[in-house]
Design a protein that fits this description.
The chain is mainly alpha-helical and 303 residues long. The chain has one domain. The protein is built from eleven helices and four strands; from the N terminus they run ααααβββααααβααα. The radius of gyration is 20 Å and the shape is globular. The chain starts with a helix and ends in a 17-residue tail after the last helix.
Length: 303
């Protein structure tokens, strides 16, 4: 095996793992968008809250730490939905979007206040840190968290497909995503559907928090923000109106980011965002409806 092939294989494995992480985030964002038409810029702060919880409970058994993370993220997500988003459902998408921006920076500020209580910024996370160990296949080094991330994304997407296709609540969610107004007239309980979507989105944020803290075991107030921005771009690139196209778009931009980062020389990686976003602009110029959206598909107006 040539050195070039080894580099390519290593880069591809790491890129697929990054794409799987982004795909998980896209599912969480896409679930809420499907029923609320809400592009939740604050989703990264749910991940951040989960990551801080993992940091503060690192001394506990991993199962207890993850359970605490789940409780905090679900509670925070529910509070945001009941106290903010539910009151703004009748407002325009622009109002909702600006509100999520405000919430994101508010939660960042709160996290900063909590974090600097000891005079330093950043909290280490030791939960499941053993997953960072790598094993070798020939000349290829694969971290355990890479395989866990890929498997977790695949299982999550498979379970979600079963939920949406084989259960009553899944059918109601699909109906709401297609036409919320008509679905509500036919007896779909909007609060129940939205609440379930918010709950699923929060659970996925917990999975993302666990994966990211293993990969980068230092939590700061900006934790998850960069990933959220890139995933939102990927969701638009894939096709915002459908969950599977949004997920594919996020996965694609994750893989592209990983590959470009691996190909660029070390001293040129500063140009990575420019290369990725230039590629995004090119894709949107050629396919403004989304790279994976069916041709001629039109978005449906939601309430």
């Amino acid at each position: 095996m040539t050195p070039l092939a080894v580099v390519d294989a290593q880069t591809l494995v790491d890129a697929v793992a990054l794409g799987a992480t982004y795909a998980l985030m896209a599912v969480g964002i896409g679930l809420v968008f499907g029923v609320l038409r809400l592009v939740n810029f604050a989703y990264g702060q749910l991940v951040m809250a989960g990551a801080y919880t993992l940091a503060f409970t690192s001394h506990l058994h991993p199962a207890a730490s993850i359970a605490a993370c789940l409780a905090v993220v679900v509670a925070l997500s529910t509070v945001l939905d009941l106290a903010v988003f539910r009151r703004l459902r009748s407002q325009s998408p622009a109002v909702m979007l600006v509100t999520t921006f405000a919430l994101a920076f508010l939660l960042q500020s709160i996290a900063l206040i909590v974090d600097v209580r000891d005079g330093t910024i950043g909290e280490p996370v030791r939960v499941l840190s053993g997953l960072n160990r790598a094993f070798t296949v020939g000349d290829l080094h694969v971290r355990q968290i890479t395989l866990v991330t890929i498997a977790l994304a695949a299982v999550t997407l498979a379970l979600l497909a079963l939920l949406l296709g084989r259960t009553t609540i899944g059918l109601h969610m699909r109906a709401a995503a297609a036409d919320f107004r008509t679905a509500r007239l036919l007896g779909v309980r909007s609060d129940r559907v939205i609440g379930f979507a918010v709950l699923l989105s929060a659970v996925i944020a917990v999975l993302v928090a666990v994966v990211l803290t293993v990969r980068r075991p230092l939590v700061t107030p900006a934790f998850g923000l960069g990933e959220t921005i890139v995933v939102l771009v990927g969701v638009v690139v894939g096709g915002l109106d459908r969950l599977w196209t949004a997920t594919l778009g996020a996965f694609a931009i994750g893989v592209a980011t990983g590959v470009i980062n691996g190909v660029l020389p070390t001293d040129k990686t500063v140009f990575l965002p420019s290369a990725v976003f230039a590629l995004v602009i090119l894709v949107l110029l050629l396919r403004p409806g989304g790279l994976f959206a069916p041709r001629g598909a039109a978005s449906v107006e939601r309430v």
